[in-house]
Description:
The chain is α/β, with parallel strands linked by helices. It has helices at about 20-25, 80-85, 115-130, 145-155, 185-190, 205-210, 215-220, 235-250, 270-280, 305-325, and strands at about 30-40, 40-50, 65, 90-95, 140-145, 165-170, 260-265, 285-290. Pfam families: Hydrolase_4.
Amino acid sequence: MAPPRAPLPATKYFWGDSPEPDEHYASLGLRHTESYYQSPCGRLFTHSFHPLSAAHDGDVKAVVFMTHGYGSDTSWLFQYIAISYAQWGYAVYCADLLGHGRSDGIHGYLGDMESVARASMSFFLSVRKTTAYAPLPAFLLGESMGGAATLLMYLRSPPDAGWTGIIFSGPLFLIPEKMYPSRLRLFLYGLLLGFADTWAVLPDKRMVVKAIRDPEKLKVIASNPMRYCGAPRVGTMRELARITELLQESFGEVTVPFLALHGTDDGVAAPEGSKMLYERAPSEDKSLIMYEGMYHSLIQGEPDESRDRVLADMRAWIDERVRRYGSAAVPAPA
């Protein structure tokens, strides 16, 4: 049986039925592009955002590469993060993960996080090493499961990647016990030698409801036509359980400056995961902010007042790191 589809969107775009995209982004002071990128692991759908004030691509403070969470994509409310950074004077690039949005792969399937991370990292590095951006600071940003993918990208990056820092928003480093997939089910499906890997048969445990605190924003997120609405696939949950354990074992390798942000009432990604990263990482420039009473989706799902508080913390952190480390950049290609 095919998984249920998302409800028809109440509006054409997440901002409404009008204006059309070019006019909408211009009204925000931004230049926006969409394109496909052929990675070694599959084709990715990508976005870029630049302030209109930038005379050319490199005429910005820094470049930020963003990764969305499980079941989401980069064309709906996730764009609020990208738009905010671009309005602060940053170039922003993001891509739908494999198995998500308009990128290649079985919808909602993340059977190999190494390939998922490698695909996005290929795109990010192809931009990062261009003449326009090589002299600039470069940051990674990951939300939710995208935080896990982002940390994996950092750990697998070549030595000359030149990442200046990482921002994590509600990163999935530790699965809460109530959300953890049944070990017995994973074992039994595993006996089928991979045949069940793409089956959408595991309980979803109402992940979206546990992530979004603002009921009106929940309606907008639920109306995203590209959102994966089926039950979690066997291979996805198996792989997320594996990768979170691997990342916890790798926290001691994180030396880059980072900011971890987490709501104390996050029911999807345990706040203890961000605390573990902060405690174990040897980075000499690390920050952890816990938001009392906030849920999982700090930007897309909180009331405006709470969302704006998180964005202000993000902006203060990245602006300061650009000031501190702005001269540390990758050599421009010959």
